[in-house]
Amino acid sequence: MSLLNLIGDKYKILSIIGMSKNSGKTVTLNHLIEEAMEEGVQLGLTSIGRDGERLDRVTETEKPRIFAEENTIVATTTALLTMGDANIEIMKVTPFRTPLGEVIIGKVRSPGYIQIAGPQSLKDIHQVCQMMLNLGAKFVIIDGALDRKSSAAPTISDATILSTGAVISRDVNRVLEETLHVLSILSLPQVDEEDKPLLEELLSEDKLAVVSNNGDTEEIGLQTALGKGHKIGEYLDEDSRYLLIPGSLVKGTLEDLTRTTRKYKEVDIVVGDGTKIFIPPKDYLQFLRMGISIKVIHPINVIGVTINPYAPAGYYFEPNEFLDRMKTYIKDIPVMDIMLGGE
Fold it and tell me: What are the strands, taking DSSP E only, across 69-186?
């Protein structure tokens, strides 16, 4: 199965996110661009951060560049237009500004390497994606920036491809554990459909709150849940159904909550989506065994996983064995090694 087949006509906005730097995200992106070119599919490209540089700005090591084919529609900034060798015709100047200049949308007239950067907020990124679709792109790819899985947020993408690889650890079992953990939190179950509108409204207002079984809402007068698990626990009683945490959910919050009350076993803890959860794999499993239930307002649609068996540090996993191990544990969605030619 090709990456393009995964998308088909089902999705208009796709995000590619990496478990870590050098996990193969840009290789996945370039492969998808190549497939689209071969099939005559016009696509749009942008980024949640900045991508396409020849050198990593932190490590000063070489990294894969982004090669844009003719007629590709790109959203980037005025400062990055001259950083590649593709010839880009400006189609639209958007109202969005970044530290790298105004965000513009252009069409590649002669193929070449490009650098891309989009707006800094998810809402603005989504608007730019819609602009590219309106200008002719069949679908748009958002290149997720380093350690910012927010590009997978369902408010801006219909589907997500996750890239993982040996760079995570020299221990293949650790790579498997971390990858399975991320997949599990990105794919958490959604709250009941009839409760979704109320929870969405509370989330949009950034309100930490408890919702009772009959739909009554009690706001918790705290600016954040961080370090406040013991106070939050005082708001739970036998009538509580949901505990909405609008920001990040971290290990410390759950530890304090479980020490304060046993009522946590009777509620669903709700976050916007799985990108808001920052809990290590072993701790996460321990919380589940303790009876913690976590649901999301917006589930994330992970449609595939790409793997990179090579790490910049010089070690690697045998590619076919690594692919087989991954496919043993990830059965519901395709797992691909791009360099091996697919699944």
Answer: 73-77, 87-98, 101-110, 112-114, 116-117, 139-143, 159-165
| Cα distance between residue 206 and residue 202, in whole Å | 6
What predicted TM-score, i.e. pTM, was given to this entire model?
0.89
Q: Please check the confidence at residue 36 and state whether its pLDDT lies above 70.
A: yes
* Both tokens assigned to 317: 């996993």
Strands (E), the chain: 13-18, 43-47, 50-51, 66-68, 73-77, 87-98, 101-110, 112-114, 116-117, 139-143, 159-165, 209-212, 217-219, 240-244, 249-250, 268-271, 277-278, 294-296, 302-308, 335-336
Q: Walk across the sheet containing 335-336 and list its strands.
A: 87-98, 101-110, 73-77, 43-47, 139-143, 13-18, 159-165, 302-308, 335-336
Residues 243 and 209: their CA atoms lie apart, in Å, by: 6
Q: Which residue has the higher pLDDT, 122 or 209?
A: 209
With contact defined as beta carbons under 8 Å apart, do 118 and 46 qualify? yes
Give strand pairing partners of 92: 105
pLDDT at 266 over 80: yes
In 83-237, where does DSSP find H-type helix?
Answer: 122-134, 172-186, 196-204, 229-233
- pLDDT tens-digit readout, 83-100: 888 999 999 999 999 999
Token pair in block for residue 203: 């989330």
**b/e sequence 260-293, b meaning 16+ C-beta within 10 Å:** bbebbebbbbbbbbbbbbebebeebebbeeeebb
* Chain mean position to CA 185: 11
The domain made up of 3-187+300-340 has a fold known as: Rossmann fold (3.40.50)
Whole-number Å distance between alpha carbons of 303 and 148: 19
Per-domain residue ranges for the chain? 3-187+300-340, 193-296
